[in-house]
Design goal:
eight-stranded mixed beta sheet, 11 helices, about 475 residues, seven-stranded mixed beta sheet, OB fold (Dihydrolipoamide Acetyltransferase, E2P), 3 domains
Amino acid sequence: MRNGLPLGSTVELKIDDLAFGGRGIARLDGLVVFVDGAIPGQRVRAVVQKRKRQYAEAAATEVLERSPFEVEPVCPHFGSCGGCKLQNMTYEKQVEYKVQQIRDLLKRIGGLESPPVEEPLLSPEPFFYRNKMEFSFSDRGSSLPSEPSPSLFLGLHRRGSFDEVVDLQTCYLQAPETQAVLQIVREFARTSGLPAYSNRTHEGFWRFLVLRRGVRTGQWMVNLVTTEPRVELLSALVPQLLQALPGLHSVVNNINTGKGGVAFGEREELVWGKTTIEERLGPFVFEISANSFFQTNTLQAERLYQRVLEFADLTGREKVFDLYCGTGSISLFVSRQAREVIGIELVEDAVADAWRNAERNGAGNCRFVAGDVSVLLRDPQGFIREHGKPDVLILDPPRDGVHPRALIRLPSLGAKRIVYVSCNPATQARDLAHLASSYRVERVCPVDMFPHTAHIESVALLVTR
């Protein structure tokens, strides 16, 4: 069968597992097949798209037998839109499979025979949970069958496409008000006479619509990312936006002239209102600017940070190093139970936000250092002489994990406990394996920040051996 599985061939497959990343897993005569668009329990017809010696990749084209965990997706764009992969599976089953993936990664990559994985923290809200959404403009895309075919699209990227956008009429990831804003901005852009940016030609004006919402405060920010400033043009949008968003506090125009597909600006123009909005996490208030990093699920972030605080086991006498601290949200959250918190962050704008947030919340025991963790820790003892020895390390690195040069020096800091927050359990497992000679993994808590997607966060507690 392996030799008789040519590209483009159609096969029937029984899906028996879910892979890290959200694809279904089937087996055909001993060959593992990763199937996009399929969930465990289904029998599907699929087209082979890639073939390797050890595995093949396919895309489901038809469901021949439904899964016992299958539900009807609530979004009419499900299947074509890349925003949600698992909306057709019961939420509890989604989390069950994602937790099993964490266990498997900790065994296979982390080298843990019996990973101490605890019960997961499910998101309090499985829908409308995001406080930030980035929608793309494009000159290529698709609409619902009932909609006319336009020349400008606004929404999320089609599954597997870098330049085609699904023209969203609704979205269940952010608050329902998002739907009205999408319609208003889309029609405004179509009648402006200015084209959408093309990822193929790198020409065009409209690039991204970024919506930020303070879930606890009700404040909204509308950020229009374009290739050139047009404050006067965008000001004409404000009256309609005010009608759709009574909590509107900020309209900004970020200018991005680069070719990269990122919703950040090289500079920013204020169109209306303020340059920031506010959000609360527990007792703390944060100012959020257009390009600030902030956890995108506010309600679940509070539960995540409470688990970090529990794992840190602070008594008020400890010095804490918060590596990759961003805008200081975790630093502030643990500050009232610590003697001192030192946050380290590469992005200087984020460090400036962290200082402002600490001042705003009266966290006088927090200090922040701008710099690359891997560079600052080249001389661990020198860093200790300057900032003191930490009792607890908190790690919250990007998806790539802790830089290898920093990872090998972490034990030299002498912290008794490490709390490792990860948005990528695979790289977390790799890093835990590297630290195994100095630290043992005592607890691991999965935290589902992104329902209906393949992503899950993980918090691990490490203690010295």
